[in-house]
Amino acid sequence: MTQDVKITAKKLRTELKTAFKTCKFSVKVSRYSMGQSIHISWENGVSEADVETLINRVKAEYKAQNVEIRNERSTFIFTHRRVTTENRDAIKTSIIEELILNPVEGLCEWDFERRVNGRVSNTTFF
Fold first, then answer.
1. Long-range Cβ contacts of 62-70 (<8 Å, 24+ apart)
2. Could you tell me which CATH number the domain at 5-82 has?
């Protein structure tokens, strides 16, 4: 059995609203010649990992019910989280403070940015 992408988007919207009451999400559907996609976006709020966990849970529920999230085309689910400059700067400051206390030899700018990006993606902002 197949599930229309609009119905899946509606279910995801409801699940996100229920699970993360204080965060506002935008859930949009795109259809194109070789497939379709669901785009979930939000600012600050919950971490990307938390949203991915919810998406995987919904996919698992569909699989348990033998339902595919597609018609005759491929379906993709994308997440887009925007973090404000203030929150990103706060993460940078906390990492700099940690590095002052525990210096890392040979740490370059690229390594520092990688640490910042990792911490930002796993942090919940409210």
1. 62/3, 62/8, 65/1, 66/1, 67/1, 67/2, 67/3, 68/1, 68/2, 68/3, 69/3, 69/5, 69/8, 70/2, 70/3, 70/5, 70/36
2. 3.30.300
